[in-house]
């Protein structure tokens, strides 16, 4: 059996990569993918802990997280489409009409 | 784990009624004529919410605190009191939404408002990490859409997108924190977790930080406040009002429950962290608000500062502290809803949120100007309005627990706040419009605005003068926490 620490290390690496992606990339689609990566890092930790403790709550949590992530991305993509219609670009650096 | 008990239904009665109302709005919408649609939708939503409020107050009052639905929810006064605040602010918001173009005629907007309220209600009573995460997302996702609701408006869509981006990022960090909390103990029930955090450890503090990021975003605590001005400026004004009051109060409900129930063992550490964050939040919010030219941005920074004041009550980590934070939120919800309602009423006619649009308002709309004075003086913390009593209580709670410096910082910040609120009132009462012909540019107030603003103004004065019953409510919520 693979030790718990290995799963947690992978999960931490995935989370860091996702966070870096969100902070560095300028394309909203890539940013959403990076957020997905962070969510799945948390999912991996949940599943690993669920097996380590032999309780199911963690696995149930993962199903809900997947559903929530889908809803969030659906809303995000809808907003991207609307923004593309008015600005003809989805670069986050161009989203600067609100400031002060 | 307990089996299902039929009387548990009362624990989620407000939620059941909210869901019914949301479905009713969607079902009835196609049957209404275009001309009267916004009236029907608005009154149905507001009336339904107030009815829900009344029915819940009669039938669903909690007795002894109890975990229900297998430990998913806690049926207590803290959750119940917050639910009532959310229902009230959603009702007022739907009245404000009625006359807003491209928002008031869309049944989806009211449905999303109700869905967000449903999520907030669950946030206030959630007693399990799974439930808590789902409730937070149920609140956030409809609010993302509402902020970006005006699809043709570049500012509104940008506001929605920014809100979504920061919201998704911070809630993911919080989720990772939840996964580590689960890793500590193998449990997800908030009331079972406290035993797993018996002593201080660096890891526990780290986990606490990750969870705090998600919640700090919700209540716009420094350094996670930067989204608020952008989102409030771009979002439709009634939605911005709802974001700054109900959504923030929901965040505080979670912070109160989570920190006091799960992490009491490391309370000295998080108290200090929160005290520093509260200081920075108040100071940054107030100082940047001084320089604002747009009233919605100014109110956004002011609402950031108010999150700092309310946080003082949490820092105190005592029954009085929790009660004073809840009381602060009561006064704040009433006052800030009124402020945003007035901005919406003026913006609808003048088409501008610039501070210049408020020159000579007292001659254009005397009643509106008077209500604005009530709201702004209450925000500034002047007696006899609600904001004054609320500030006294949080500062008293801080001093009682030995946080004298924090109370001093709070008082100094109130003085900065007073300055920029007074500047706006100066524009309203002393300045004139460019050609000094205010009589030719009256600002008519439609009936829903008149009703909502009257209720709020009376509420602000009532909370300030007769604060006994409200403080009693706040105290019994706080007592249920421990």
> Which pair has the most extensive contact?
A-B, 46 and 43 residues
Structural class of chain A: mainly alpha
Q: Roughly how many Å apart are the termini of chain B?
A: 21 Å
Biggest beta-sheet profile of chain B:
2 strands, antiparallel
How many helices of chain B in DSSP terms? 19
Count of beta strands of chain A: 0
SSE pattern of chain B, N- to C-terminal: HHEEHHHHHHHHHHHHHHHHH
Query: What is the CATH top level name of chain A?
Result: Mainly Alpha
Poorly predicted runs of chain A are: none
Beta percentage of chain A is under 5%
Oligomer: heterodimer
Give a description of the structure.
The complex is a heterodimer of chains A (100) and B (482). Chain A is elongated, with a radius of gyration of 17 Å. By secondary structure, chain A is mainly α. The relative contact order of chain A is 0.12. The longest helix of chain A is centred in the last third of the chain and has 31 residues, at 57-87. In chain A, 78% of the residues lie in helices and 0% in strands. In chain A, α2 runs antiparallel to α3 (57-87). Chain B is an all-alpha fold and 482 residues long. Chain B has a domain at 267-482. Chain B has 19 helices and two strands. Chain B has a two-stranded antiparallel sheet. In chain B, β1 and β2 (73-75) form a beta hairpin. Chains A and B meet through α1, α2 and α3 of A and α5, α6 and α9 of B.
């Amino acid at each position: 059996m693979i030790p718990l620490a290995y799963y947690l290390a992978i999960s931490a690496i995935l989370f860091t990569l996702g966070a870096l992606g969100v902070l560095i990339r300028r394309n909203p689609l890539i940013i959403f993918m990076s957020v997905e990566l962070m969510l799945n890092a948390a999912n991996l930790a949940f599943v690993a802990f669920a097996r380590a403790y032999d309780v199911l709550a963690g696995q149930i949590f993962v199903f809900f997280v997947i559903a929530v992530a889908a809803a969030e991305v659906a809303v995000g993509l809808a907003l991207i489409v609307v923004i593309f219609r008015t600005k003809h670009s989805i670069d986050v650096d161009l989203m600067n009409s609100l400031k002060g | 784990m307990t089996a299902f008990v039929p009387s548990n239904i009362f624990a989620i009665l407000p939620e059941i009624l909210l869901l019914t109302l949301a479905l009713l709005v969607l079902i009835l919408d196609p049957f209404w004529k275009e001309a009267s649609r916004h009236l029907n939708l608005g009154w149905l939503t507001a009336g339904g919410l107030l009815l829900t409020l009344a029915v819940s107050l009669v039938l669903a009052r909690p007795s002894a605190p109890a975990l229900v639905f297998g430990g998913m929810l806690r049926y207590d006064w803290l959750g119940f009191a917050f639910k009532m605040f959310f229902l009230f602010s959603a009702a007022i918001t739907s009245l404000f939404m009625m006359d807003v173009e491209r928002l008031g005629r869309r049944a989806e907007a009211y449905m999303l408002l109700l869905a967000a309220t449903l999520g907030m209600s669950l946030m206030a009573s959630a007693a399990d990490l799974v439930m808590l995460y789902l409730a937070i997302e149920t609140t956030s996702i409809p609010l993302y859409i509402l902020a970006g609701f005006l699809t043709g408006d570049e500012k509104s869509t940008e506001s929605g997108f920014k809100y979504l981006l920061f919201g998704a990022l911070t809630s993911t960090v919080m989720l990772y924190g939840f996964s580590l909390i689960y890793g500590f103990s193998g449990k997800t029930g908030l009331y079972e977790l406290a035993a797993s955090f018996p002593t201080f450890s660096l890891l526990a503090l780290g986990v606490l930080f990750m969870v705090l990021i998600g919640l700090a975003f919700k209540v716009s605590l420094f350094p996670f406040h930067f989204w608020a001005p952008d989102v409030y400026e771009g979002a439709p004004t009634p939605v911005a009002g709802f974001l700054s009051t109900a959504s923030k109060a929901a965040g505080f409900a979670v912070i109160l429950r989570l920190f006091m129930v799960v992490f009491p063992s490391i309370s000295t550490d998080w108290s200090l962290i929160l005290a520093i964050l509260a200081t920075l939040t108040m100071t940054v919010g107030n100082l940047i608000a001084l320089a604002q030219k747009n009233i919605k941005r100014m109110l956004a920074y002011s609402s950031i500062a108010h999150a700092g004041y309310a946080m003082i009550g949490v820092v105190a980590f005592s029954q009085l502290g929790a009660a004073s934070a809840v009381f602060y939120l009561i006064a704040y919800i009433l006052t800030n809803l009124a402020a945003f309602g007035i901005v919406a009423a003026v913006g609808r006619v003048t088409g501008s949120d610039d501070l210049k649009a408020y020159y000579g308002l007292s001659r254009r709309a005397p009643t509106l100007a008077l209500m604005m004075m009530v709201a702004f003086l209450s925000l500034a913390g002047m007696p006899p309005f609600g904001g004054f009593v609320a500030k006294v209580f949080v500062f008293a709670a801080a001093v009682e627990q030995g946080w004298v410096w924090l109370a001093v910082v709070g008082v100094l910040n109130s003085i900065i706040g007073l300055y920029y609120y007074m500047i706006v009132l100066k524009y309203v009462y002393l300045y004139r419009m460019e050609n000094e012909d205010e009589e030719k540019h009256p600002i008519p107030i439609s009936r829903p605005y008149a009703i909502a603003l009257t209720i709020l103004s009376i509420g602000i004065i009532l909370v300030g003068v007769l604060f006994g019953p409200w403080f009693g409510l706040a105290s019994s919520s706080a007592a249920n926490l421990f």
